[in-house]
């Protein structure tokens, strides 16, 4: 190095030192700022993501804290309105009860299995009836569509036997539905939404459906058995 | 006064001395800028690293609080699931609205009109009635039209048989 500087002229020799320093600083700056900038950018992106997920978690927590207990208590009503198991037996029982209340004779009742959808499963119930008063049949139908579990009328045909005779024959087809519950909870970081106004209206409708009557069997008391082998 | 014994050709020229002086200043300034810049970048890096670790702690706390409210979350998700599926069922082709039409029509029945046939299908809601005379039938049509409960009412058939009297079938759009 010394021999090189000795060989250089005095003009260059005096400029050599500061020039080398400037070149070194420029080179170091390129290396440091390039790496530093990319590292800071990564941190900045991570920070933005962290802030976003923090905000999501905060929002979720606030919704869970503020959600009205009254709303959650209606979960049972929604399970009755759209059950998780096939409600055919329950609906048939309701049909029979309602028909007997309205003096409608059920002549034939068929349950037909339909293709099971992935999410919502359904089945068809065909009911053949006979009755004398038409308004009572309308009332029977109203009971049906306003009862839980949800049922939808698929087709209906009611005919009067003849002009003079006050006897009606009805052929009714209804669809009944049930659906499985969600199996997993979403990830903690997935945002959650409060019930919208439309959802609240549907909830109110589900709540307003007439609940099925469940019979409670009272346990019988032990009886005397004089002959235990009989 | 100091005597310069060096030969004049070994002495740097004036412009070179001035340039060197300027270069030295520039080197010093660039070095300072470099050091300040490096320090700034490093500070920013440290600042965001600390912010990130604080945020991670905060997120863990929030997750713990959310986990404590898991039962509420479960109920809310169940509720939403049922509501969405119920809406999907309601949106399927259902004739439940036809039952309301039937109820409203039966409320408008005047004396002398009796049901003959009712058909609810995907195509139409049809109600056929018997009437002894045309006056009763026209009163029924007037009460249907005047009720304002139906979007459209159309007459499908009108027939007369001496044994049955008048028979009319109406189609309804709710």
Automatic annotation (TrEMBL), chain A:
Domain of life of the native organism: Bacteria
Q: Where are the transmembrane segments?
A: 12-33
Q: What is the lineage of its organism?
A: Bacteria, Candidatus Woeseibacteriota
Record's keyword terms, sorted:
Membrane, Transmembrane, Transmembrane helix
> What is the protein's given name?
Uncharacterized protein
UniProtKB/TrEMBL annotation, chain B:
Q: Which residues form a coiled coil?
A: 52-89
Presence of keyword Aminoacyl-tRNA synthetase: no
Q: Indicate the transmembrane segments per the record.
A: 26-48
Top-rank taxon of the source lineage equals Bacteria
InterPro entries under this entry? Extracell_DNA_Util/SecSys_Comp, PilN
Q: Which Pfam families has this protein been placed in?
A: PilN
Q: Which UniProt keywords apply?
A: Coiled coil, Membrane, Transmembrane, Transmembrane helix
Q: What is this protein called?
A: Fimbrial assembly family protein
This chain's source organism reads Candidatus Woesebacteria bacterium GW2011_GWA1_39_8
| Taxonomic placement | Bacteria, Candidatus Woeseibacteriota
């Amino acid at each position: 190095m010394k021999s090189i500087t000795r060989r250089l002229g005095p003009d260059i020799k005096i400029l050599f030192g500061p020039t080398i320093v400037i070149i070194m600083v420029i080179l170091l700056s390129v290396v440091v700022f390039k790496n530093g900038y990319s590292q800071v950018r990564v941190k900045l992106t991570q920070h933005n993501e962290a802030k976003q997920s923090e905000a999501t978690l905060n929002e979720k927590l606030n919704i869970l804290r503020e959600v009205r207990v009254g709303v959650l208590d209606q979960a049972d009503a929604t399970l009755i309105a759209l059950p998780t198991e096939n409600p055919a037996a329950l609906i048939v029982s309701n049909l029979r009860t309602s028909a007997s209340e309205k003096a409608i004779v059920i002549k034939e009742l068929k349950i037909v299995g339909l293709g099971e959808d992935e999410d919502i499963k359904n089945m068809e119930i065909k009911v053949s009836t006979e009755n004398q008063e038409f308004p009572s049949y309308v009332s029977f139908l109203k009971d049906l569509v306003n009862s839980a579990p949800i049922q939808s009328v698929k087709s209906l045909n009611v005919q009067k036997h003849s002009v003079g005779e006050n006897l009606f024959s009805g052929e009714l087809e209804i669809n009944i539905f049930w659906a499985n519950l969600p199996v997993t909870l979403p990830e903690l970081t997935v945002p959650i939404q409060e019930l919208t106004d439309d959802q609240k209206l549907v909830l109110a409708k589900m709540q307003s459906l007439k609940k099925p009557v469940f019979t409670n069997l009272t346990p019988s008391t032990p009886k005397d058995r004089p002959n235990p082998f009989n | 006064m100091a005597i310069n014994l060096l030969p004049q050709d070994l002495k740097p020229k004036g412009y070179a001395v001035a340039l060197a002086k300027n270069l030295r200043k520039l080197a010093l300034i660039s070095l300072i800028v470099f050091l300040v810049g490096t320090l700034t970048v490093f500070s920013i890096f440290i600042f965001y690293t600390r912010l990130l670790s604080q945020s991670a702690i905060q997120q863990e706390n929030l997750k713990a609080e959310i986990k404590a409210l898991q039962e509420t979350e479960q109920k809310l998700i169940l509720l939403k699931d049922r509501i969405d599926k119920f809406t999907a069922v309601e949106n399927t082709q259902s004739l439940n609205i036809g039952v309301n039409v039937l109820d409203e029509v039966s409320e408008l029945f005047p004396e002398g009109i009796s049901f003959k046939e009712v058909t609810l299908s995907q195509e139409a809601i049809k109600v056929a009635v018997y009437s002894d005379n045309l006056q009763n039938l026209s009163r029924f049509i007037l009460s249907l039209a005047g009720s304002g409960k139906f979007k459209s009412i159309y007459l499908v058939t009108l027939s007369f048989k001496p044994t049955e009297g008048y028979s009319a079938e109406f189609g309804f759009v709710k």
